[in-house]
Every structure is written in C-alpha cells, then in structure tokens.
Amino acid sequence: MSYNISIQKTETSNLDKLDFNNIPLGTTFTDHMFICDYDNGEWVNPRIIPMGMIPTHPAAMALHYGQAIFEGMKATVDSDGNPMLFRAEDNANRLNFSADRMGMPNIPTELFVDGLKQLVDLDRQWIPPIDGSALYLRPFMYADEPFIGMRAATHYKFIIMASPAGPFFSKRIKLWAEKKFIRAAQGGTGEAKAAGNYAAAIRPTELAKAKGYDQVLWLDAVEHKYIQEVGTMNIFFKIDDKFITPELDGCVLDGITRKSVIALLKDRGFEVTERKITIDEIKEASKNGILKEAFGTGTAVGIAYIQEIGLDGESIHVSHDSPVGIEINQRLNDIKTGKVEDKFDWMTKVAKQLVD
Ligand code: COI
User: Sorting pLDDT into bands at 50, 70 and 90, what band is 292?
Assistant: First the structure.
C-alpha cells in the first residue's frame, strides 16, 4: 500500500544559513517535518509541513506518563548526490517493538518508510556531502491525548524530523562502571527505545562527568557485574583476536549499528560472540594485556573508542594499538556513501520526486 502524503512546502528555506563544514550539534533542523496522527484506531492525515512548533495540550499523556519512543537513523548521499537511507526497515521494526512494550500502536512499515523517503527527497539539499557527515533522522511517537487518568492513550502523533550532522570525531572516552544506579532490569523497558530510559540515565551521567568520566558503563541490576551498554551505545571488546559484545538479554538495546558492526566484523573474518560479559573479566583481560580494544556503537556516533574504565576506585586500561573498529567505521561510511558494494542490501535509494 502506498500512502497519500500531503505536502506543504516552506516559503522561507533556512538552507542558506547552513555551513556544511561547521554544523552545530543537534540544533539545526531541515525546512520540513513529517507528521501523522493516530485517531480512532488508525493512522490518518500523513503530511509534510514546514518545520515548526506543535501545539500541545498540557494534559498530553506523554508529558505525564511517558508514552514516548524514538529512533535514530541516517540519510547520506552517494558521489552523484543521490540520497540513501541506511537500514530503514530495521528502524521501523524496532520502533514497533518499542511501541508494543510501551502499549502504543504500531506504525505500518510502508508509512514509516514512505514518510522518510518523501521528507528526505524534499530536504535532500540538507544532506551533507562530506565523508562521515549525514542527515540524522529522528522518527518518534508520543501520546498526545489530553487525559489525566493512567491508561494507554488513544491518540498519538508520529513525527519525523531531520537534522544535518557533521562527522563525529570523538576523543577516546573514559567510562564509569556504575554500581549504584541501573539502566535496565529484566522485565523492564531497557530493550525498548523509550524516552524514559534516557531520562533515567541523565543524573547518573552527570555524576560520572563530575568525577571526570565521559559516559556511564551500565551494569546489571541484580549483581552489578554483567556489562549491558555504555551511555547511549552498545559496547564491544576485543580480547586477544576475538570480539565479544553483551547478548540481547532483554536489558540491552538491539542496536542497528551493533548488528551492522557484528556483520562487518564477521565478514572481515573475526569471531564475534554475543554473551554475558562480567566487568571482572574485562579487568582481568586488561591486567593480562589481552584487552586489545573496546568501543561503543550507535547511530549518532558510529564508533566511539574507549580509553579506560573506572571501577571501584581502580582504572581498567584499554589498549588501542591497531584498532579494527576504525576500519569497520570507515567501511560503514563507505557503504552509506556508495563507495563500496552494499553486499548486505542495507541501503534504500530515495527517488527524486518532490524537488524542482
Ligand atoms: C542514536 O545514536 O541515534 C541515539 O538514539 C542516541 C541519542 C541519545 C543521540
């Protein structure tokens, strides 16, 4: 089924204010956004309108009870300037997985992908044509029904906005292995991309930063010994010549970059195991000189290298001699810009329909 998306183009584009070589992080938005309403059990009125404020009733249920979920994804251009989306259907599936957990309606994959394609087509000139840069896309859904009682809302909005993003050059980061606060417990919402998971991480992250660390390394809720995630990313370790990453045990987000990195590492001939990993095992590997590299993976950052982990007053040192992750990150970027073959069929081309 193809959706009839109405289009209202902006009269005043902000494109001429954008400097592709100096994009402020997360504060620049393209000229348009996609919106759709969930009403009476169905998604209605899909539309692209000029980017701007949305009137919100103060009793909108998302503001009180947190029915709010989101995705992060990227559009890039090939060397001829043709836009492409990375693993768009995987993001649609994950949004619906999150929606199920949070008692929210599913959005049809075709509507999700059509909305993305048409928005990216219309705002195609906002995609930075620079290696490592991209148009960051933020599809999200929230309960906008005004109601004071606690139950699943009956009215929702699904919105996609787009924000150009420069290359993410991260220094190697320092992690704080957190033993007081937790991110996720079995049966909770940790595997959903729910806004509340991020809210709960803000204070512990501030405290870690005050101690001189960049991000929190989340441990399990019961014994505080099994590694889950880092900050807003999944995590990988290389011990000797093998990669390991925490298994998807219900507390870990099924990251799209995570699964792409697993595929690329395997394709490159590395063994990658998804399993339970204790922080003590990582400490031991570091002591024995076999902790060869560690990195976080996420859509926004790609791959972020880890320098050390603070644990109970001690510091776990991570080597960085010939990191494989740099090569994998480059291959990801090359797939996203059509420089190398898309052998996993991850890219979706965006046809030119709405511009000119
Ligand atoms: C992403 O990497 O896309 C995320 O969703 C993390 C976000 C908090 C920036």
Answer: very high
Q: Is the CB of 232 under 6 A from ligand 1?
A: yes
Is 110 contained in some domain? yes
- Cβ atoms of residues 137 and 74 within 8 Å: yes
The Cα 285–Cα 243 span in angstroms is: 13
* 254 Cα: distance to centroid of ligand 1 (angstroms): 13
Domain of residue 250, residue span? 173-336
CA 192 to ligand 1 centroid distance, Å: 13
Q: Is the CB of 329 under 6 A from ligand 1?
A: no
pLDDT of residue 155: 98
The number of the ligand 1 atom at minimal distance from the alpha carbon of 72 is: 3
Bridge partners (DSSP) of residue 20 are: none
Burial status of residue 259 (CB atoms within 10 A of its CB: 0-12, 13-18, 19 or more): middle
- Reported confidence tier of residue 322, pLDDT bands at 50, 70, 90: confident
Same domain assignment for residues 237 and 163: no
* Domain count for the chain: 2
CA of 294 to the centre of ligand 1 (A): 19
pTM flag (> 0.85): yes
Assign 3-class secondary structure to 277-346: CEHHHHHHHHHCCCEEEEEEEECCCEEEEEEEEEECCEEEECCCCCCHHHHHHHHHHHHHCCCCCCCCCC
Asked if residue 155 and residue 83 are part of one domain, the reply reads: yes
For 239, the enclosing helix (H) or strand (E) is strand 234-239
Is any ligand 1 atom within 6 A of the Cβ of residue 77? Answer: no
Strands, E, within 87-212: which ranges? Answer: 134-143, 156-165, 173-177
Q: Which residue has the tokens 């219309």?
A: 122
CATH number (domain holding residue 139): 3.30.470.10
Atom of ligand 1 nearest to the CA of 136: 3
Distances (CA, A) of 312 to 105, 133, 136, 280, 309: 43, 38, 37, 11, 10
